[in-house]
Amino acid sequence: LFNNVPLAPVDPILGVSNAYKQCTAAKKVDISVGAYRDENGKPYVLKCVFEAEKRLLGAPKEYLPIDGIPEFNKVSAKLLYGDAMNGKEKNMVTVQTLSGTGAVRIGIIFVRKYLPAGTTVYISNPSWANHHNICKESGVPSAQYTYYDPKTRGLNFEGMIADMKAAPNGSVFVLHLCAHNPTGVDPTKEQWNVIADVMKSKNHIPFVDCAYQGYASGDLDNDAYSARLFLSRGFEMFSAQSYSKNFGLYGERAGALTIVSHNEKNIPLILSQVKMDIRAMYSSPPTHGARIVATVLQDPELTKLWIDELKGMSNRIKYVRQKLLDALVARNVPGTWNHIVDQIGMFTYTGLNPKQVEVLVQKYNIYLLASGRVSLAGLNDHNIDYVADAIKDAVTS
Ligand code: PMP
Predict the structure, then answer these.
(1) Which of 73, 78, 122, 166 could be bridged to 94 by S-S, CB 3.0 to 4.6 A?
(2) Per-residue pLDDT tens digits for 351-365
(3) Which of 128, 192, 306, 337 is flagged as catalytic?
(4) What are the structural domains of the chain?
(5) Whole-structure pTM over 0.90, yes or no?
(6) Is 393 a catalytic site residue?
(7) Pairing of strands 142-146, 121-125
């Protein structure tokens, strides 16, 4: 019966992380997976989360409503859209989802069911690989738009705009709110304004993927610029929020999908359909992570503690960016490395090629993606020199 099941390809990110776990070498470094580590390389539970968990001890384990905890949905929309909401609440619906991935998935299914047949979802080149998987598995046509320029290791803004202009009117564009994964390259505010102009003239629909709010600049409002711009410019749009990175809630699967419609009469109808999809897929979302987020964001003291901790995490990443750059420059590693500090968020797209990456993995047990993406959270004072030595060897040998 099952003789025809082919082996699925290994996930490019999780596969590398598993290889690291299986590696028995005494000296090994994991800079593959996008999960925060403290200065000793250890996973970190935020103090505000710990405090919220103390308050939640013994909370009922009853099923949540299909669309999740109402207070969680409210604070999530507010966190992302802030003052840009400005009376638009009635034109928006937010549902709790299985983290950012679940939000993207439910949103893309909605695109397939309720946007005109054949609507294409445009994904940046490169992007988080799961965007493509989700479109494929949801039966939604997807295409790539120009984003990263390997020559400048920055944004190919002209190419991006040209692709937006060339796409059929009314296409969906998946845009990373900030701290673009995997490149760490974001448009400037001026460039976002131009993007919004072009998207408006083409009736394109923003699908803003928000996995790193607070990580890019350490400032939640600043990081939310693009989503707020689209909302205040009157777009009908989608946003997918994840609390994995900014709250450190990875495995708790806390996230939210928001859909914005011009016509408030559509909101209950949209909600009814989204709920039907959720019901058929997993019935209702998990309780714990969303309760933690709602507890923190409804309490000014805990919110302040969270913002301080978020700044702490974002500053540590900035610190290791600078340290890695300094270490490479001190070793006279051929090439330019300034992009390491110019890029933002959790990752740097180093520009190392697959052969060089292979040297790091095979010879030094330093695990990173074949694309050369490094998760900076895995670096610290104990391993940066080792990694810099290995990069020098990989680049010069
Ligand atoms: N979108 C992007 C761009 C991401 O980087 C991630 C996490 N790696 C997600 C969505 C989803 O994250 P999660 O489902 O773990 O919250």
Answers:
(1) 73
(2) 999 999 999 999 999
(3) 128
(4) 12-44+314-396 (3.90.1150.10), 65-298 (3.40.640.10)
(5) yes
(6) no
(7) parallel
